[in-house]
Amino acid sequence: MNSDDVQYLNEIGYGYWKSQVLFTAVEFDLFTLIGGGGKSDKIIAEKLGADLRATEMLLNALVSLRLLKKTKGIYRNTVASNRCLTKKSPLYQGDRIHHFHNMCGYWSKLSTAIKTGKPTAFDDAEGEVDEQKLREFIRAMHNIASVQAGEIYRKLQIKKYSSLLDLAGGQGTYAVRFAEKNKNLKAVVFDLPGVIKIAREHIKKSGLTGQITTKGGNCLEDSFGKGLYDIVLVSNLLHIYDADDNLEILKKCWDSLMKEGIVVVQEFVLNPSKTLPLFGTLFSLNMLMGTHSGSSYTAVEMKEWLKKAGFKNLKRVDLDMDSGLIIGCKL
């Protein structure tokens, strides 16, 4: 084994060290504290109420991770951290980073999940939902959707549509962004009742209550309506379920569409051998531990469900980040 092999294994092995540095910085809201100027380790430690020696170590590690810059003892945000890790930025990703931190507990039980084939993220899937944890999760999904919404709007040419169903739409990030750009668009955000409560708050704050309405329900149990929409967005939902459930969801999407409407599935799309991309393979393990039957899927699998549901003219559109779109038409 040469030194490159050893280095590669070491980098995987201590990868969680890097994560913990980022998690801690986000927990302290360090990047917002530093802001657009620069601060010394002493000032930062005082504002955090933290130990000076330890704070300097954390700050230097963040410099090494290229999340801070250091010049003559003054620490400043990088372009990336200023854009993505300060709370005033519209592209803030801190909630998503916090969500990754929250997942550490059940990821430490991966070996148990492999042996049993059962989730380790919860003991009682039917238990009462913790509203605080739900809000943290929905904010994390909002972070990544905020980054992707503009690209999806352009690639789907949303400006030509007039009625959207945002299925499992979370707090309505996509619906709000699309409605802001397309004043002729009427949208419905469909999600679980607890999530819809959060969505209504976001929609009201956006000032788009005239364009966007909500519907609480269960995607496996409730109808989405008949012939109501010209586009249905199914974003990051199918990875929660198995093939049979996903086919039923897509059949309901077909029913809810007008003639010549389209369904758009956004997922972390695996290659045919299910070995790439890296994030998709790891996310599949995340679904093993976080759901009863979820997984990442290949484009072939999702297209087969769409065909069985009645969709035609299937195509794939890749996105800049880890996910892709699978599109089907109702003719």
CATH superfamily of the largest domain: Vaccinia Virus protein VP39
- Our count of helices gives 15
What is the count of β-strands? Answer: 12
Q: What radius of gyration results from the CA coordinates?
A: 22 Å
**Overall 3D shape:** globular
Name of the CATH architecture of the largest domain: 3-Layer(aba) Sandwich
Specify the helix fraction band.
Answer: 40-55%
H-E string: HHHEHHEEHHHHHEHEHEEHEEHEHEE
Question: Runs with pLDDT <50, length 5+?
Answer: none
User: How many domains?
Assistant: 2
What about the largest sheet?
Answer: 7 strands, mixed
Summed over residues and divided by their number, the pLDDT gives a mean of 96
CATH class of the largest domain: Alpha Beta
Q: Termini distance? A: 57 Å
Share of β-strand residues: 15-25%
The CATH topology label of the largest domain is Rossmann fold
Widest sheet, order of strands? 6-5-4-7-8-12-11
Question: What structural class do you assign from the helix and strand content?
Answer: alpha/beta
Summary, kept brief:
With 331 residues, the protein is α/β, with parallel strands linked by helices. 49% of the residues lie in helices and 18% in strands.
